[in-house]
Amino acid sequence: MNLAEPIQPAEDSLRIAGRTYRSRLLVGTGKYKDLEQTRQAIEASGAEIVTVAIRRTNIGQKPGEPNLLDVLPPDRYTILPNTAGCYTAEDAVRTCRLARELLDGHRLVKLEVLGDARTLFPDVAATVVAAEQLVKEGFEVMVYTSDDPIAAKRLEQIGCVAVMPLAAPIGSGLGVQNRYNLLAIVENAQVPILVDAGVGTASDAAIAMELGCDGVLMNTAIAEARDPVLMASAMKHAVVAGREAFRAGRMPRRRYASASSPLDGTIA
Fold first, then answer.
1. Which of 14, 118, 176, 189 would staple 21 via disulfide (CB 3.0–4.6 Å)?
2. Per-residue burial over 123-142, b = 16 or more CB atoms within 10 Å of its CB, e = otherwise
3. How far apart are the C-alpha atoms of 141 and 112, rounded to whole Å?
């Protein structure tokens, strides 16, 4: 074991759909310059769950072309097929069925149904329809949604195994824009809550974790960094630091100064 590596303690591991993960950082596989950079960055991130856009990435449906699974083998990573690029519930459900076929019955999927091509905000109504159908078909659904606490609770009640509200628009790098909504979602959830979309740098990831989120999913913040591999490492440490800060409990905020050293017994 490399003692320099940030490791979540076993008693604080992330559990999704009955499986346990040491890392609370989930990463995407798009936007890298090539598969080798993809491999290096994801390895540096320490992530154990990697998302794959089925409509954009070859995982076997295009024989003879480079296959992502050659550099990210399923025996090492949990492959999380996602429905990126889907704008209707029907397309999203169809894409999940294709992923299940390509991955030999794989049931864990990331559902996203987009409502607008410019902002990539989710179509929450269509997301609910797709989630209901996928849960009925036996899929384990991790669902991308808005930061609306009511929508998040509804998706949990449908049977989604994790709810993933955005922090800001996909690929924007704006960081956590509405921490009060995220707090409300976290405080009322009985399933893991993971921030999905909007993270731009390590401090954004730490803030999400300090709010009590169970994990963070990101892609653009790493892939579009000047040094993606180094940024992946930074994100790994930020998620661990944010989680530890949440568990430790921050000091109260005060309007005025408070001496760091006790004043009792000092020389007058």
1. 14
2. bbebbbbbbbbbbeeebbbb
3. 10
| DSSP string across 37-51 | HHHHHHHHHT-SEEE
Average pLDDT for 120-132 = 97
Closest among 234, 246, 227, 165 to 198, alpha carbons compared? 165
Query: What's the confidence (pLDDT) of residue 257?
Result: 85
Could you confirm whether 31 is annotated as catalytic? no
Q: Which SS3 state, helix, strand or coil, does residue 108 take? A: strand
SS3 25: strand
CB 171 within 8 A of CB 220: yes
The model's pTM: 0.90
Which residue is catalytic, options 110, 136, 153, 236? 110
Quote the CA–CA distance of 199 and 177 in Å, as a whole number.
10
